[in-house]
Amino acid sequence: MRADCARELMARCDELGKISDDVGRLTRAFASPAMRRANKLVGSWMRAAGMRVRVDAAFNLLGRWASSQPNAKTFLLGSHLDTVRDAGKYDGPLGVLTAIAAVLHLRERGVQLPFNVEIVGFSDEEGVRYQTAYLGSNAFTGTLKPADLARIREKQIEKARRSEKFLGYAEVHIEQGPVLESKNLPVGVVTAIAGQSRIRVEFRGEAGHAGTVPMNLRQDALAGAAELVLAAERCGVAATVGKLDVLPGASNVIPGQAVLTLDIRHQSDSRRIAAVKSLHSKARSLARRRGLKLLWQPVQENDAVPCDKMLTNIFSQCVANRGLTVLQLPSGAGHDAVVLAKICPVAMLFVRCKGGISHNPAESIKTADARVAIEVLADFLIAVAAVYDRRQSPR
User: Which CATH number fits the domain 196-302, given the four candidates 3.40.50.720, 3.40.1010.10, 3.40.50.300, 3.30.70.360?
Assistant: First the structure.
């Protein structure tokens, strides 16, 4: 591998990280001007790696390295190019740029694969614009629901697009947690992705004067919401209230309305669902006790996704072949692989990130770790090709 390959990847992450919809912080939302500029820049790097490039109707960026074999099937690589608000520069883009670097490395070595490789830079994984994740990958797989389409103002987006059968999907991503760093390992192999429930919760009470309404006669919507926040903290699974809006929002007015988001995750779907039911019951109970009206609106539900055993084993062997300790671990974060698992086998490789920090401008990875990720992903494609060839050979 070229000595400057990993440094080039890091420089590209820096360059891409400057493309934002917001001044002074990194934010790229679905179909935004910044997203279009990002697609143009990353598309130029795909072309430089010898790939045919296009942007689909859902603003997903696609780079295709065609196999020389006729009627070849396709293996997918990728991650997302959108970001959260005030983001770091590696969550998502690292996976796309690592895939480009791995393809370039294989092409420079003269490697011929028995399948096409298509790299996808998904347009919306974070859900910033419409508050529902995986818009890009759902459009790519043809699994958008009518409710998703109702939220979207870009009329050219298609509900069902792809009829092609894919061999698999592999995604490189920063860990977004501290486990790899605690074990001093550059990469880890993902075994499963946690299931996730997203819920919009609204409490409606009665606004009133902060000085004249007795405490025992109030219908304080925020006080009800606060009880639910504390119940979520104690529910036994990963439960987060990431957003809380209070109306009318004045210091001398009792809150008459409180709207919050609940994000509940676990590798066990049964435990996650039980936590959702328990919190819903708690919300109904406290609303009755406080004289509030409760609106409980599920926004998104994704089951836990196990990674494909064969592809996971191949990733593990590729890591071991590089003289590294193999660590297999689950992902508490959601990824586009959740949606791709509906249509093909999926696998993931985590890359160590400093302090486990993510969704934060302080996201940081080491150049040496980026190099390991490129090497392991390139080795992975060669190993998958060997398995594919054996399966296609006449017996």
Answer: 3.30.70.360
